[in-house]
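Budget justification aside, the reviewers requested a transparent look at the raw inputs and outputs of the sequence design task funded under Objective 1. We therefore reproduce one unedited record. The lines immediately below are the structure tokens for a 99-residue chain.
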């Protein structure tokens, strides 16, 4: 994922299906990928940074895949509509009680 995404839906869906993600380390992907557990970030948008991320992936891909078996659906569930709505309401409730 070479560009900065507002929210990491593509990476979230990939993780749900057990696919580790290599993504640019800015934007929404930083909310959905756990570094070195469910994916790898490259921090510069250049060939060297991407090459380093791919080399790192090659070294830890089995660990990433195992983590995703355990964490992929849990991570996806966090952003399921009902859970997202409830978390949002829980964040607003203390604020709204001040008014």
């Amino acid at each position: 994922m070479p560009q900065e995404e507002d929210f990491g839906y593509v990476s979230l869906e990939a993780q749900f299906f057990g696919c580790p993600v290599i993504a640019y380390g800015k934007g929404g992907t930083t909310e959905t990928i756990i570094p070195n557990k469910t994916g790898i970030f490259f921090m510069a948008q250049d060939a060297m940074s991407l090459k380093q991320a791919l080399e790192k992936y090659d070294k830890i891909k089995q660990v990433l895949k195992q983590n995703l078996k355990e964490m992929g659906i849990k991570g996806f569930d966090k952003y399921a509509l009902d859970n997202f709505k409830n978390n949002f309401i829980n964040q607003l409730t203390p604020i709204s009680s001040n008014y």
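The mean pLDDT is 84. The domain at 9-96 is CATH 3.40.50.2000 (Rossmann fold). Computational costs for records of this kind are itemized in the attached budget.
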